[in-house]
Amino acid sequence: MLYQSTRGGAPADGAEAVLRGIAPDGGLYVDASLPKRPFPWDEILCLPPLSMAARIMSHLLPDFGGMEELLRSAWPERFDSPVITPLASAGGFRILELFHGPTCAFKDVALSVLPLLMTKARAGRGEAGQTLILTATSGDTGKAALEGFRNVDGTGIVVFFPDGGVSPVQRMQMVTQTGENVRVCAVSGNFDDCQSGVKKAFAALNESGEPARRGIVLSSANSINIGRLAPQTVYYFLAYRQLMDRDEIAPGDPVDFVVPTGNFGDILAGYQAKLMGLPVGHLVCASNANRVLTDFFATGIYDRRREFLRTASPSMDILISSNLERLLYLASDGAEAFVSACMNVLAREGAYTVPEEIMARIREDFAAGCCSEEECARTIGRTWRECGYLADPHTAVALKVTDEWKASGRAAKAVVTLSTASPFKFPAAVLSAVGGQAEGDEFDQMEALSSLSGLPVPPSLSGLRDKAVRFTDVIAPGKIGDYVYEIIRKGGV
Ligand SMILES: *Cc1c(COP(=O)(O)O)cnc(C)c1O
Fold first, then answer.
1. Ligand 1 in contact with 265 (CB < 6 A)?
2. pLDDT tier for residue 483 given thresholds of 50, 70 and 90
3. Catalytic pick from 36, 107, 120, 406?
4. Ligand 1: does its nearest atom lie under 6 Å from the Cβ of 421?
5. Cα of 314 to ligand 1 centre, how many Å?
6. What separation in Å is there between the alpha carbon of 290 and the centre of ligand 1?
């Protein structure tokens, strides 16, 4: 099976696409045949969750065998729910909780699968040695990647985070990380220094030829990897199935999904579910005050030339949503020259315009809305008071947009809102929104939130305070290459 690059470069098979992540021409890999290949979506809905998931994953990544076994080692032991992503009912809301994994955020779903796919891809190509993941993180992705790659044979991972630039809980999550094949290092600088340091190290190390001589392949756990998208498509089916089990829908009824969006990966995974036949009505893109996407869906103009706002939903603070490139490709029937042109103009001038006929097609499947900081806090407070449901700020953005979508008169009868993080990950914002006092450090705030709500703090968060610190290195951004070189010289982590 071949995946096309959105910018028209050489296609890649599944193994190559998973190992590379991004195509050499800068494009993203897409399965252009997905809308045409038949998939028995209705038959698989009756299967047990993991078998169903395996059928979906095998359709998206047919080059990989043994998918059910792979998912069995990825999810059940890491997730505290037998259905992986349970559907909660709160007032009129149906909330798909994606945060039952080891780091209490939705990136766990995909990052617990990607390492196993990478190992399989290398084994299938007869490659020995280690796949070494280098990641710069502003907080959440680093921890989810560490948990996903921890003790996975044939892989190693090094995570760099800005010293003083992540929350105390995020720092503790990373520096106490267990596992034989993990390394965590603070960088004196901000996230941008950290990220550009890793990019430079990546290029310089590959240039040196040293990783190859040691049998090491450098890679990243980037969110544009097809191996991260595929697992996310699964939970749209899991949500549909749970609505059927509760007799809230009959097979074939359309369901809308409202998705708290940053890099556009989560919502694009929902589009893949729709292309596979799942009766998805609209995919509603919910943005915070960084409303680039809301404006794009309204006007057809993608314009990143605006102030970057820091919000209470930091994982959605993004001005360039990389995965939108895939939607442009699919909605234009693979017009790679058009997609390349858009991306070039975006890089050069900071904006591009999509013709009305393509926007009209996009709007058949997508809608969009946004939520200010005040509205976000108000929504957390109201959802708690009126529905008894404690939402994190990312989820609250989507709940506010869900209300508006339902009021628009265009919504399907069933609307599911995706919830991407546990409220205990953002205790200060949630506490103050529900009328509590955000005092002390984040651990104190989690406790306060727990007594106020009567909900337990997830053990993976509450246990952190007393865990042993394993990693204390702090280096300058310019030393990242040397740091990784030392690891490579010893044959990997
Ligand atoms: C990453 C993230 C998002 C955004 O998901 P995208 O796939 O980047 O659109 C939303 N909420 C949380 C909590 C996240 O970590």
1. yes
2. very high
3. 107
4. yes
5. 9
6. 13
Instruction: Please identify which residue in the block is written with the tokens 């409202």.
Output: 258
Arithmetic mean of pLDDT over the chain: 95
Q: Which two tokens stand for residue 65?
A: 């065998």
Locate 356 and state its tokens: 């009305």
Distance 126 CA to ligand 1 centre (A): 34
Two tokens, residue 487: 């690891």
Give the tokens for residue 327: 């939607």
* DSSP-derived secondary structure for 11-72: -EEHHHHHHHSB-TTS-BEE-TTTTTS---HHHHTTS-HHHHHHHHHHHH-TT---HHHHHH
Q: How far apart are CA 306 and CA 458, in angstroms?
A: 37
CATH placement of domain 87-104+227-461: 3.40.50.1100
* Structure confidence by residue, pLDDT tens digits, 261-308: 999 999 999 999 999 999 999 999 999 999 999 999 999 999 999 998
Quick check: CB of 315 below 6 Å from ligand 1?
yes
The predicted pLDDT at position 372 comes to 98
Q: Which of 194, 128, 115 is nearest to 156 (CA)?
A: 115
Distance CA 175, CA 471 (A): 5
User: How far is it, in rounded angstroms, from Cα 194 to Cα 317?
Assistant: 18
Protein residue with least CA distance to atom 15, ligand 1: 315
Determine if ligand 1 sits within 6 Å of the CB of residue 396.
no
| Model confidence at 49: pLDDT above 90 | yes
Q: From the CB of 231, is ligand 1 less than 6 Å away? A: no
Token digits of residue 393? 């700020």
For ligand 1, the distance from its centroid to the CA atom of residue 106, given in whole angstroms, is 7
CA distance 21 to 359: 27
Residue-range domain boundaries for the chain: 87-104+227-461
The encoded tokens of residue 490 equal 């010893």
What is the pTM assigned to this prediction?
0.95
Is 107 a residue of the active site? yes
Q: Rounded CA gap, 330 and 313, in Å?
A: 29
What beta strand segments (E) does 255-365 contain? 255-260, 280-287, 301-303, 351-353
Main-chain dihedrals φ then ψ at residue 484, nearest 5 degrees: -70, -35
What local confidence, expressed as pLDDT, does residue 128 receive? 85
For residues 330 and 317, give the distance between their C-alpha atoms in angstroms, rounded to a whole number.
25
Answer whether 99 contacts ligand 1 (Cβ < 6 A).
no
Would you say 91 and 389 are in contact if contact means Cβ atoms under 8 Å apart? yes
Q: Can you tell me the distance from the alpha carbon of 67 to that of 230, in angstroms, rounded to the nearest whole number?
A: 12
Give the pair of three-digit tokens for residue 33. 């045949």
pLDDT band at 129 (very low <50, low <70, confident <90, very high): confident
